[in-house]
Amino acid sequence: MTGTTIARLSEHDGQTATIRGWLYNRRSKGKIQFLLLRDGSGIVQCVALKNELGDDVFERLDGLPYESTVEVEGAVKLDARAPGGVEMKIDRIAVLAEAAPDYPISKQAHGPDHLLSHRHLWLRSKRQAAIMRIRDEIVRAIRDFMHQRDFVNVDAPIFTPNACEGTTNLFEVDYHDETVFLTQSGQLYNEATAAALGRVYCFGPTFRAEKSKTRRHLQEFWMMEPEMAFCTFDEVMDLAEDCLRYVIGRALEHRQRDLADLERDTTILERCTEPFPRITYEQAVALMHEKGHEFEFGDDFGAPDETFISEQFQQPVMIHRYPKAVKAFYMKEDPEDSRFALGVDVIAPEGCGEIIGGGQREESIEVLKRKIEEHGLPEEAFRWYLDLRRWGSFPHGGFGLGLERTVGWVCGLEHVREAIPFPRTLYRMYP
Ligand code: 4AD
Ligand code: MG
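^ thats the input. predicted complex w/ magnesium ion below
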């Protein structure tokens, strides 16, 4: 089958072209109908004239249900007034599949429950397609950035024998009569591959049995995790900042039209060319106290705390050097102040919360063994991990960038569930 796509129609100005797609919307005006067709690449207005197509075809179109599949051949004309800047006059139209009359998603507003139950159809709407294109751009930008910096993509397994990020949110799976877990993070495996390849990253789905129903939490989300051999903590922070800046720049540069469709005010994204403020946990707490925001020194930041801090900056903020107790077992202690761990979180503005978490890793096998015990983790499952310190321990660090939270922030979404094609949330596994 030959033909073109709606996104490329403007290349056919003044010619005849063929497109295939679905009926998205319609407006009738006596002997003229304006059919909006979508094909995934875009939406185009097609004009049907009764006196050219004949009564039968014209009437068939008039009653054609939304989401029917059609093939249209017609004359392409650039027209600044038309949505997408191009219009097509229908010379021939074939209905490839007539849709049932009761398409569950109308152009009126629906509640989130209805939309999520019809996620398989909801994805067809303009707004959702725009989000998916931005997600795609962000994925590509991340990979391009990592490869420009000489990182090798080495992916981590999904089935794992051990926890990485605490034991409270593990998904257990029966693995041939043995209990294993769905991965919470590829980091521990990255540490192994970093010792093999130097600079690595993994990028894949990760799982957290989160009991929280917030706008930031998914049960299944994608994470990009780089790991660098022989780096300093500052270099980890620099990499996180450069990566995020690059990714946002690419979304602004390449997905302007989609951001406009989402009615995203991009001012705050454009400000990302400036350096991100970096403050310590101690400074963040002092700032909260100074401004009258209640917070107990030593606690981990909750969503309202993160939002409060980010509101002081209107930019991504990097908070580093957290109390050891609130961070994972593998984090290296700050050599300058043993109360703190060399961890960093990047907090996005607009209440989106932590989009990156990372830090420097503990190199000492003795300290790690002690930490594994203190965290109530089974040492046996970490035998291989300890081997990495036994044979050629090395300073290293990295981070995890949450894809959906990043997409959610770039798109200005209310909830991360719109940032992934088929969200898995606390009470929803369908479709
Ligand atoms: O801060 P986290 O838990 O860090 C790690 O997993 C490290 N092992 C990463 C590393 O150093 N290689 O998670 C990293 C990021 C968070 O900043 C957030 O963006 C995202 O993963 N994330 C979630 N996104 C959606 N839903 C959830 N339940 C998430 N939990 C974490
Ligand atoms: Mg974190």
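The chain has a mean pLDDT of 96.
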